[in-house]
Amino acid sequence: MAMPLFDIAAPRTVREACRLLAEAPDGAEPLAGGTELLLAIRHQTRHPGLLVDLAKVEGLDGLTYSPDRGLSIGARVTLKRLIRDASVGLHYPSLAEASRAMGTPQLQMMGTVAGNLCQDTCCLYIDRSAEQRYGLEICHKIGGHLCHAVGSSDLCWATYNGDLAPVLLALGAAITVADADTEDVWPLERLYTLDGKNPLALRPDQILTRIDVPPPARRSGAAYLKLRQRGSLDYPLLGVAVAVDLDDDDRCVRAAVALTGVDRGPIVIEQASRLVGGVPTDERIDEVAKAAYKRARPIKNVWGYSVSYRMKMVVPYTTRALKQAIELAARDEDRHA
Amino acid sequence: MPDRSVVLNVNGRAYAVTCAPFDTLLDVLRDDLGLTGTKRGCEKGACGACTVLVDGDPVLACITLAARCGDRIIQTIEGLAAGRDLHPLQQAAIDHGAVQCGYCTPGWLLTAKALLDRNPSPTIEEIRVAISGNLCRCTGYQKIEESILDAASRVREVTVSTQ
Questions:
Q1: CA-nearest residue of chain B to A6?
Q2: What pTM value is reported for the model?
Q3: Coil, strand or helix: which one is B15?
Q4: Phi, then psi, of A296 in degrees rounded to 5
Q5: Which of A51, A106, A161 to mutate to test the interface with B (most CBs of B within 10 A)?
Q6: For chain B, what is the radius of gyration of the CA atoms?
């Protein structure tokens, strides 16, 4: 498969990069690891005339931890760096786990945190070469007016499959979004539109420059469970991330649950807050798991287990993730000092 | 759009290459430099047959742009043996029958080399995780894993005996 033509620019600053994105006459996209974008270009589902290579942009590859400020992750930090970093492994093990769960070692080496968060939504009818789509009417996602996965839908139902998003949502992460002149901090949830066709709330001239994760509480636990058919490569057919904080009497003071792989964006389960205020009981945990079940909306547009099996796994996976996080929090002592 | 001039350091040699911005490292290695040991498998980052080492780390040449590799140290399968002396990983692969059609072999050999450079005594589970991005349709992986485990001990013997 030949690679379609594009040009590439290598700016040195965020401002320059955003200007290039804003002014490109034939469309432009930022290039970090390239593990998704180059493939989409080769498959002719995305057609930027210019790639803005972020490799030489200063200030995008820091990875620092401090007990009072938490973890600061530059956009270009690779998943492999998160996996290998001692502070991440100690203070945010669910983030290291989600990074290890992604793709393959080679993709972890190349792929970046920002790229993983900003990944496009997926669908079996789109994620194939132009030759393989020949004869298939074009769908909402690529400029058409129908959905092959959900017949008669006016909406695009492409699925969001990022592993890092639910973990970072559960941990309360914020992102820094920059354009040529300004910089803004968003709660991570604001990045996601839940529109399969345009899943990100970024304008074409904006880039995500940094992810900040709050310092973990003294007695905190987190977990990420990924339903997959193979031991590597697969997207999450269901991903459940949980973060829980307990007080000294084992009462929950914070609880967050987020899912991936079951809608057009990662989804936060608000009912997790029902755990706050008391010692988590099986009944309360079950309430939260059932709320996750009600909210999950997997579609048969990603390779792997059936929709009904993925739905069947929502309650057990959410329950197990909550129990793991609660147990870790209960055993947590002064790991974060 | 203009072609790019880039100097690629491959297997210890410098190659002055002129390529389009959209040429992949795989294209340039195979078609311009004649290093056809790196294979074109899925061309979508899902099989690992195109694995090369860039600055010692396994990456996928099919989704790496050549023009971005100018200041990197690249190693392909052609650079694994020292002249006619096979690397212990290669010898162990032959000894264990870990090569059938051979198409996946350059990819996992380099992945395994990167593993042993970082972890000289991997467990079988660590080997499995390390090569989980290199798909093989022929062998069922068992002999590949055993050959890497054996190669690790051969490399350790050589290391000890040269100290």
A1: B22
A2: 0.96
A3: strand
A4: -70, 140
A5: A106
A6: 16
User: What ipTM does the predicted assembly reach?
Assistant: 0.96
Among B60, B72, B117, pick the best mutation site for testing chain A contact (most A Cβ within 10 A): B60
Contacts of B44 (CB under 8 A, 6+ apart): A39, A42, A43, B62, B63
Angle at A109 between CA A127 and CA A224, to 5 degrees: 75
**DSSP E strands: which ranges in chain A?**
7-9, 28-31, 50-53, 63-66, 70-74, 174-178, 183-187, 207-213, 220-227, 238-246, 252-260, 267-268
CA A1 to mean position of chain CA atoms: 29
The CA distance from A282 to the nearest CA of chain B, in Å, is 35
- Give whole-number Cα distances, B9 to A76, B39, B74, in Å: 24, 19, 6
Q: Give pLDDT tens digits for A218-261.
A: 999 999 999 999 999 999 999 999 999 999 999 999 999 999 99
Residues of A numbered 11-40 whose beta carbons fall under 8 angstroms of chain B's beta carbons: which are they? 34-35, 38-39
Q: Within the 103-162 window of chain B, which residues sit less than 8 Å (CB to CB) from chain A?
A: 111, 128-133
